[in-house]
Design brief:
With 390 residues, the chain is of the alpha/beta class. It folds into three domains: 222 residues, Cation efflux protein transmembrane domain (Alpha-lytic protease prodomain-like), CATH 1.20.1510.10; 80 residues, Cation efflux protein, cytoplasmic domain (Alpha-Beta Plaits), CATH 3.30.70.1350; 83 residues, Alpha-Beta Plaits (2-Layer Sandwich), CATH 3.30.70. It has a three-stranded mixed β-sheet with strand order 1-2-3, covered by helices on one side. The model has no long low-confidence stretch (mean pLDDT 85).
Length: 390
């Protein structure tokens, strides 16, 4: 069904990096959600009113809030599809993240309201009226919401949309809450205990937990998450397959919303290479990365002395030394300068954020390895932090 709807209503559906195509995916998701949720609200409200079930009525208003979320999603995709302008030169893609944040707040609001009403019903319960019509309507609602969850997850995964994945999560919450309401209704056949209220409390806590997870994920995007390891590997592999590039470091990826990323890195090349040839190579690499990954890439070249045996030996020893401190550490931009009494080893070392050692402690550990040498070495270290997931 999902594939049929996509092919029927989304023109050029395979071009998922195109902002206009993403907008059409958003419209499909939103309109489908509005129609399904309004229908479910009407059915559940009538059933809840006739059976005096707070869980079913709360679930009905949860569906109504989902309709509002779908309208917000529709507006969000429209705004995110706007082209770059002088005030927003990187486009409006991050509006998708803001839309996810709004939806997550609505989920939290519904969760806390359901929690409040469930506690009230726990101490002042109403007798539920069991009917098979109510059972059938709730079972049908579970089926619809389960389909909507799968539908939005497929769309969200296909176009890498945090909004649709949040909507999918919300639909999954609805499946659980409706199932709880169904259990509460059926329990009236066996007990007078306020099972309906207890199930409402459990569902509300589940909804609040899900809403918090979406808030955290969205805020991480807005603040700035590390680059996806798979994307980092792809960029590294594309650069390292070039014969004249001997190393890549300081890779940074800036996310301005789905389909709108900028990145930069340093590429090491032999200091003996022709600068014009290297310039042409780097230009070709930047174009290739944009064509294949859709990333606007800026590459800085670092000349490296690869023919100096002393430099190569010291660089190798330094690599082994930092790896002995922590396997995740690495060095780059290694070079030496010789003075009358000692040799300066100048380099950058990349340190994981969670390493317990201070910069001074790391330097002391490195210096201690070279203290026994006949030559007096002096380390000049720049400490870097990684911008990718380690």
């Amino acid at each position: 069904m999902t594939d049929f709807l996509v092919k029927r209503f989304v023109k050029d559906y395979e071009k998922t990096d195109d902002i206009k195509v993403r907008e059409k995916y958003g419209m499909l998701s939103s309109i489908t959600g509005i129609v399904c949720n309004i229908l479910l609200f009407v059915i559940k409200y009538l059933v809840g009113f006739l059976t005096s079930s707070i869980a079913i009525i709360s679930d009905a208003f949860n569906n109504l809030s989902d309709s509002a979320s779908c309208i917000i999603t529709m507006i969000g995709y429209k705004a995110a599809a706007k082209p770059s302008d002088k005030d927003h030169p990187f486009g409006h893609g991050r509006v998708e993240y803001l839309t996810s944040l709004v939806i997550s707040f609505i989920i939290l609001l519904v969760g806390f309201e359901l929690l409040r009403n469930s506690f009230l019903k726990l101490f002042d319960p109403e007798e539920l009226k069991f009917t098979w019509g109510a059972v059938l309507s709730l079972v049908a609602s579970i089926g619809v919401k389960l389909w909507m969850s799968v539908f939005n997850r497929k769309l969200g995964t296909k176009i890498n949309s945090s909004v649709m994945l949040a909507t999918s999560e919300d639909s999954r919450n609805d499946v659980v809450s409706t199932l709880a309401a169904l259990i509460g209704l059926i329990s009236t056949l066996f007990t007078k205990l306020p099972v309906d209220a207890v199930m409402g409390i459990l569902v509300s806590l589940f909804i609040i937990k899900g809403g918090y997870g979406i808030v955290k994920e969205t805020v991480d995007h807005l603040i700035g998450k590390p680059a996806d390891p798979a994307l980092v590997k792809k960029i590294n592999d594309m650069l390292m397959e070039k014969e004249k590039i001997i190393g890549v470091h300081d890779l940074i990826v800036h996310d301005y919303g789905p389909g709108n990323m900028l990145a930069s890195c340093h590429a090491e090349v032999s200091s003996k290479e022709n600068i014009v040839i290297i310039h042409e190579l780097i230009d070709a690499c930047e174009r290739e990365i944009f064509d294949e990954l859709g990333i606007i890439m800026t590459i800085h070249t670092d000349p490296v002395d690869v023919d100096n045996e002393q430099v190569n030996e010291l660089r190798s020893r330094m690599n082994v030394t930092v790896k002995s401190i922590d396997e995740r550490m690495s060095i780059h931009d290694f070079r030496i300068t010789s003075g009358e009494c000692d040799i300066n080893m100048i380099f950058d070392v990349v340190v994981p954020f969670d390493l317990a050692l201070t910069n001074d402690e790391i330097k002391k550990k490195i210096d201690s390895v070279f203290e026994g040498d006949n030559v007096k070495y002096h380390t000049v270290i720049t400490f870097d932090r990684t911008y990718i997931e380690s």
